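Example 3.2
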Amino acid sequence: MDETVSQPGIRPWHRLAATLIAALACWPFQMVRSELPGYPASGDQAPWTLGVPRATAADNLHVRQFKGAIGSGVEAWLIVHTPPDTVYAVLADPRPSPEFLPYVTNVWIDRQQGNDQVVRYRARHFGLFDVEYSQSRHLQPPDRVSFAQLKGPFKKVEGQWLVAPALEGTRLTYSVQVDPGFFVPGPLQSFFLKQGLPGLINAIKSRAESGGTWKKPG
């Protein structure tokens, strides 16, 4: 059963902040609707530099916000210096994700049938409380992994990981949109949606570029 375990002394806005971060930082395998663009328009990009070995414009994390079919969304892309099949292998198997994804501590595959999975995740925030959620996942090899939330803290969550060949390796694109099911001021929701992006995508990048050996600190 999915639940949020609260500890005494945690303010409600702290729990909200952690939960919003969880929507992004702990949803590693997701998909948005096909009508959403695959890549952000150049005028919408807001780059973060992630300190990759070869510094080019594409090595930065490019981020844009959008209004999706179910709610507010965010989309990001960067270049991973390894072939697309290596990146896709990291995305397609959720079992090792506690080794390298921020916050994620446990993963269970409740059901597997062909390219369809039901996966449960547990994540720990601020070292104080756990959040559990589950999602349906649909693998579309060799370039897409899609998801939809089944149980969790929000009304709806949908997103995607998309890999595509690029001159220097792979263009990795991540999109997610969230309908919280309760009121969250727009600027606050946007802030926390973007807050988890660098850590999430850099973890996928590091894992893929290391050939599946990189692990998060601690």
